[in-house]
């Protein structure tokens, strides 16, 4: 009789213990399922945001790019590296300037071909920026000026805007140990020395190039073609013998 009573007690306890385990597992499952659910949602949200945001940003940037453009190249020996931004399309409502001689140093009005006054303005403005930064002025180089002017003319007449291989182009003679270049192109009211300088200063790469202590010489080349894509083209070549 006692043995049968003990067996009943053990059986009841086992049944009770089994029920307790089931209850514990149920609570654990609820807690466990809640935690991953929130974690998964946060993870998915972050993934979706990071994927869609760059796509929207890149599309908006490309669509909104307008008016003038500038490009710089940072160079070191023995071969230069370069960075540049794609030029914006010339506005369709830009009127072509009438033919004429060299205009003022800060305006491309009546432009046609080279403009030494424009080149001199850019040259002086760059050296002024260098002086304000505590740097020495760069010397004018007729060789670099000729190379820069020819390149501006080539871009205007052949409808492109990029650096290409500046090391081979600027240092064809092998006279330099370091070369660098910045470009700018702009139509209408943007076709001016002050607009070119302002655009370069607004970019950290261009500003660093103008204020680099690497170079000792500079040549500015300008060419304007009213029928070209961007009208006024500016090239500044830097070098160190």
What gyration radius follows from the Cα positions, in whole Å? 34 Å
Cα end-to-end separation? 114 Å
Average pLDDT: 69
Structural class: alpha+beta
Which regions have little confidence, pLDDT < 50, spanning 5+ residues? Answer: 1-67, 73-104
How much of the residues is beta strand, in percent?
Answer: 5-15%
Q: What form results from the Cα inertia axes? A: globular
User: What count of domains describes the coordinates?
Assistant: 2
Protein model, in words:
The protein has 241 residues and is α+β, with helices and mostly antiparallel strands. Helix 2 (116-132) packs parallel to helix 5 (193-201). The termini are far apart. Strands 2-1-4-6-5-3 form a 6-stranded mixed beta sheet. Helices cover 49% and strands 15% of the residues. The protein has 2 domains: 1-64; 66-240, CAP (Pathogenesis-related Protein p14a, 3-Layer(aba) Sandwich).
Short description:
This protein is of the alpha+beta class. The protein contains 6 helices and 6 strands; from the N terminus they run αββαβααβααββ.
Secondary-structure topology with pairs:
Blueprint: H1 2-64, E1 69-73, E2 83-84, H2 116-132, E3 139-140, H3 142-158, H4 166-170, E4 178-186, H5 193-201, H6 204-210, E5 217-224, E6 232-240
Parallel strand pairs: 3-5
Antiparallel strand pairs: 1-2, 1-4, 4-6, 5-6
Helix pairs in contact: 2-5
